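Recap quiz, item 2
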Amino acid sequence: MKLKDLPKEELYRCSYGCAGCSAVLAVRLTLKVLGRNSAFVVPANCISTVSCYFPQAPFFVPMTVMAFAATASACSGLSAGYKRRGRSDINVVGFAGDGGTADIGIQALSGAIDCGNKFIYICYDNEAYMNTGIQRSGLTPYGAVTTTTPGSCFENRPKKDMLRIVAAHDILYAATACTSYPLDYMEKVKKASEVNGPTYIHVLTPCPTGWGFAPDETIEIGRMAVESGMWKLMEFENGQFRTTYAPRKTRPVAEYFAAQTRFRQLSPERIAAIQKEIEATRD
Amino acid sequence: MSTRMPVKKYITANEAVAHAARLARVEVVAAYPITPQTTIVEKIARFIADGEMDADFLKVESEHSALTACMGVRMTGARAFTSTSSQGLEYMHEMLAYVSGGRYPLVLVNVCRSTALPWSIWGDQQDAIQQRDTGWIQIFTETGQEALDMVLQAYRIAEDHRVLLPVMVCLDAFIQSHTEELVEIPAQAAVDSFLPPYDAVVTMDVDNPYSISVGARGADYARWKQEQQEAAEKAGEIIEEVGEEFARVFGRDYGGLIEPYRCEGAEGVLLTMGAFAGTAREVVDEMRDEGKKVGLVKVRAFRPFPVQRLREVLAPVRAAAVLDRDCSWGYGGALATDLRAALYGLSSPPAVLNFIGGLGGADVPPEKMRYMLEKALAAERGTIPPLEFIDV
């Protein structure tokens, strides 16, 4: 895939997303790959909130707002309906946030993968319930402050490993990505669309509002997440995990933490311990 | 299975419902097991396995997902079906309102069962009544035949462009669900002419894309909900219209919103919903033979509530005894309390006595129905005697 080959046409525009929102960017990039032959299911999250209040309609493909816990089951039903109508070619896309995926939506996701209908489930991960005002989710990383894990009561549990959770379902294709690496992300979306069954893509979408950085630093923060080893770009296919992009230069995790306000209360000792863990798991 | 001639068989109401789903040419079924509903979807799975029904069966991981998947199917214009009971219906609660608010003409069969706690797999109607305000049309049936016939009618009612609301067809646990009776299974050809394929107003069409089921606020939200209320009211007319057409084609008439029985000149009338009407009819006959002026109203549609028809039938009556298999805790039986509101403003309204019975599968034998009617005959117009739990 080459950037110059991507269509000029924008199928998602004029949302009310915050300045520097990379969740909005993820929707745009997804539609650049999948085009008009797509249908979106968006549960309660930032995207539905900034996109879907009547008479606003930023999606130029059919879309529906969905209940928080119901993204994957709606995708499964939609896919089954399209199949009955002879339209299995349509890309059914569920676009849920981290809480909508790893917390309230995880049962339906597990069930829908098990059910086997063709759809692409995209979890855009901004690492907290941003839409409701930055509360911790099952994907909030260790050490982060949110409005429900304030100050010294910062998040003290690790992020759930969704890639391994969906891989444990023998899913045909799953991947992690980050909007700061758009080609890597889009190639994964393309690949998912070619699979005849449920697929899962987990895209890290840095959030200036919730993480505490300037709106023009979104792309850089995503790169820092990958370069520091806090996030990995991977694929799961044919039962195997594979790293799709390993940064040539790595940087200390302390730099990634220092660039955001949410990790401010982490002591140098804790940061050193996290750095050690990252070193231990580096490929 | 014959496609041209109806067939009579001894089957349970659950099996009758499975035949109805097959005859309605349902394309996708999504369901999760729960007693006493399960034999419906087991039978459907068997129909599909044996090639008697061309449908896909989504084995979902919960009722919440079952209803959501059906809604997804509906978004493409295909016909979907699900059934559940009790805890399962409660688990669907969030999605019930999504479906009605989104105006998806789904049909759901609820085999009415008690709700926990105490935990009970046995019958009453608490589950369905707890979903009263979710925006679904709710119709209670008495027999396997009526259940089959109402599922077919339910698709016509739901898919009518003047309605576009989901329909919950209710049957009673065990009395209907697991009891065999003689049921006439209509011929496919006759059902096909009665129930044409669904002509969807809006679908998730990539060639004509809409943002559907979106957010709205203030006046936009209110307008949306006002239209929903207007459609729910309109559904009353359509239920009667479709019932009349069904009677013309298939020869079985259930009376539309309510079925009054021997109410002419009655002084005391028993009201109930569902399978208990069968026993009540016998009791009314016995008491009429004794010269007692009693009658029965089987309330079929609980939503929309048949206000006008109930006022017409009950205005001349001295007292109405309502047997509720449910309770709105802190108030009273749902049918009784709604009935009192419906009769408000009559110059001399009947007394409305409220009996709560048949909870947790308790039987309500003829003697207890007679007791309720005798109490009604002794009541003064316009009074509201205290609530009685007759099972205890």
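Chain B is about 40% helix and 20% strand.
The first helix of chain B runs from residue 13 to 23.
End of item.
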